[in-house]
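INFO  loader      accepted 1 record
INFO  loader      residues=408
INFO  predictor   begin
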Amino acid sequence: MASGQLPRGGSIAITGGRVVPVEGDPVEGGTVLIVDGRIAAVGGPGLAPPPGVDVIDATGRWVLPGLVDAHTHLGAREEGEGWAGHDTNELTGPVQAHVRVLDAINPADEGFRDAIAGGVLAAGITPGSGNPVGGQTVAVRCWGRTVDDMVLRSPAGMKSALGENPKRVLGERRVNPSSRLGTAAAIRAALVDAADYLEKEQEQDSTERKRVSRDLKLEALGRVLRREIPWRQHCHRADDIATALRLAAEFGYDLVIDHGTEGYLIADKIAAAGVPVVTGPLITARSKVELRNRTMANPGLLAAAGITVAIATDHPVVPVHLLIVQAALAVRDGLDRETALRAVTIHPARIMRVADRIGSLVPGKEGDVAIWSGDPFDIMSRVEAAYIAGREVYRYDYRARSGVFAAP
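INFO  predictor   done
INFO  writer      dumping tokens
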């Protein structure tokens, strides 16, 4: 699917702040110049805004790229809507590779406004974890009239789940599989079917035989096997993470571990496989057996092993605007500041394969920028203004003690 086209803002220059580009050193008294929705230049006090641009004074403020949360259920599990707003799991069968979470997202979900107020300007939205294969994920901006306007990449991955959730959910419905071995077998069988489907398609192309009947599930899984999209593997326990690594080695797809709660126990094996981890939610109780070894030190331990780490909220499990709070708590427990900032900006952007557009303040990228009142890792700092494609979409009103959002 083509990416969404938001209306472009005018030319603006954000000047005088502490500019933190993520890819590059911070600049004191810096300027971010945005022209026609894209970053045109990032520089120090010597970078003078050209005539005709709107100048935004950020003196005493911090200027950062929009934060990115790679694992949420924004818009698909709406807040305050009860049953009517729950559209994350299609539980009519174990393999739902053909469903697209894109079709379930309501841009009017209050969570998107919370995201922007918390500096999160882009998010990965995934189906739930009730199925061994749950469906196609999407990367979106957090602002737009329709989800089509918001799309950065679709599909951005294929959701799959190991461990307790598919075992419990399908077991309660008396639908196979209902065990860890059954879940892995269902995934393996689906991927074998997809490989056979691709082989038949290739034979057809070479012999000009009658076209193979389309199968939307196998087509979608074929994109994983062709490494067009990553396999987003929900798993918490170390043994389930090992199963994820085993399956990826067997079928040769690009694996991303989501959650990875016990990843630190086998960090060396994850690192050896070159697999990134989207870890989180971090601010949770040990609500199930899989979380009994939960530790806020996990991101730091994974990063120390050489693993690319992103931090996620799994919104609404943890409210999306607390993404930066999770990163700060990870710093408190051993993750270095620079890596923590990358874990909520450029790393999730790369994992979702949209780092050419967002995740850092680099000329040529989209003008998705947040102005913070101070150090974003300081709990007292807040987002004062946010820009998507160079257009102001949010501003905090200190007199009203509330945020003001632009109409999409």
